[in-house]
Each structure stands twice: as C-alpha cells, then as structure tokens.
Write a structure and sequence with these properties.
The protein has five helices and seven strands. It has 186 residues and is of the alpha/beta class. The chain has a seven-stranded mixed sheet with strand order 2-1-5-4-3-6-7. It is globular.
C-alpha cells in the first residue's frame, strides 16, 4: 500500500470516528451547554440530608449570591478547603450569602456525610448527589470544584482544586456580588 493511500485510510478513520462521537454525544443526551465563567449555572437536583427525601435545585437559590461546592468526604483537598468555606460563610451570611456544598459520595453514604458535617462543625447547607450526573452537568474534571454564582444565576468565579475561600481576593469578589462596600468582619 502506498504512503498516500495509507494517509487516506487514516484520514477516513478519523472522520468516521469523529462523526460517530458527535452522534453518540447527541443521542446520549450529554449535549450540555459549555459551563464557564459568565455562563448560566447548570440546572441540577440534589437531595437534602434532613430525612425528608426532598431535592433542591438552582431555582431554589434564585436571586441569591451562592457558592456551590462539589466535594466528597474521602477527598483530601475538599477536607482542606472546608474551613475556609465555613469562614467565608460566617463572614457574609448576614448579608444573604449562601453556601451549598453538594457531596458526590456514592449513594448509601448519607450517614458518613452527616458525620463529616458534624465533625467539622459545618453550618452551611449540605446536599447529596451520588449518581455522577451533577459532575456531568457542571462539566467538572475533579473535585473540589467550586462555582461562585451571582444574583443573576451566572457563574462569576470557578475553582478546581482546594482554594482559600476566605482570602482577601475571594472576599472582595463575594463582597462585590453582595453589594457590601467593605468585607464584613467574621
């Protein structure tokens, strides 16, 4: 087989594979809008852990400044950043700031999540979504993945990996979104 013909076969295979992938994505229902800073927060549903079998969605936080954190009890970087998320929440909750930490632990680990929350004295809202769907909706490549959402429902900041959420830079962003002129005292 000649070199030109070999390259032709390779090109044809690439085209067929690319077309098959595109069709598979659309047929698989995974054709989500790209999630990035400035885009609307993806719709999601996650279970409350209060024993009522209720779920919450982004619509429940309409008009709020909210930090959405995808995390798990087994995730070391998630554990590291939780105290800074709690401090940020304590600093701004009186101004209407919300934190929604969505645990992505497997189904059946609800008690483990509740034990973690109690051990770390977390007072912000904790939800659970263990099917993997929320990671697909938010297009995350790992956890912790954190999205700061403005009152308009658009993502204003994104962080993948552990971050110091109570840093002066992050406090300034939250204060601006809340319309608070000075960072609030803890």
């Amino acid at each position: 087989m000649s070199t030109a013909r070999q390259w032709g076969v390779v090109a044809a295979i690439v085209v067929v594979l690319g077309a098959g992938l595109a069709v598979g994505v659309q047929l698989g229902g995974r054709d989500f809008a790209q999630v990035r800073v400035g885009s609307p927060t993806p719709p999601f549903r996650a279970a409350t852990l209060d024993g009522t079998a209720r779920t919450k969605s982004i619509a429940d936080y309409s008009g709020e400044v909210v930090l959405i954190n995808l995390w798990a009890t087994w995730c070391g970087p998630c554990v590291i950043e939780m105290p800074s998320i709690q401090r940020l929440y304590d600093r701004y909750r009186e101004h209407g700031f919300k934190v929604v930490a969505i645990a992505v632990d497997d189904p059946g680990f609800e008690q483990r999540i509740l034990d973690f929350v109690a051990e770390h004295e977390l007072t912000f809202e904790i939800l659970h979504e263990g099917s993997g769907r929320i990671e697909q909706q938010f297009q995350t490549q790992g956890i912790p993945a954190t999205f700061l959402v403005g009152r308009d429902g658009r993502i204003r900041k994104f962080s993948l990996g552990a971050a110091d959420w109570d840093s002066s830079a992050n406090r300034a962003v939250v204060a601006q979104l809340l319309g608070v002129s000075e960072p609030a005292a803890p």
